[in-house]
Design a protein that fits this description.
This is DUF2892 family protein. InterPro entries: YgaP-like_TM. It comes from Marinilabilia salmonicolor. Pfam families: YgaP-like_TM. Keywords: Membrane, Transmembrane, Transmembrane helix. This protein has 85 residues and is mainly alpha-helical. It has a domain of 57 residues. It has four helices and no strands.
């Protein structure tokens, strides 16, 4: 049996090409900070607060990894310089 057939590596950098540019990253980080701040200051709470916190975490993670799965689905790329393969 071919060992590559069973091999799964979801964090393979070749399959996760950067598609989040610098401006996009900055906007995501600012929005994540605002959403997390609203939650931590108890301006929003309950289900809405939880949603704000989850969205903030997703925005922060996507900005740190420079990769957005939704961008891949829709063919969006906000990187100025496309990374070489």
């Amino acid at each position: 049996m071919d060992k590559h057939y069973l091999s799964v590596n979801p964090l393979n950098t070749k399959s996760m090409k950067a598609n989040v540019g610098n401006t996009d990253r900055l906007i995501r980080i600012v929005i994540a900070a605002i959403l997390a701040g609203l939650y931590l200051a108890e301006v929003v709470s309950g289900t809405l607060g939880t949603i704000f916190l989850i969205v903030a975490i997703v925005l922060l993670v996507t900005s740190l990894f420079r990769f957005c799965g939704a961008y891949t689905l829709f063919g969006v790329n906000t990187c100025k310089n496309k990374p070489d393969n």
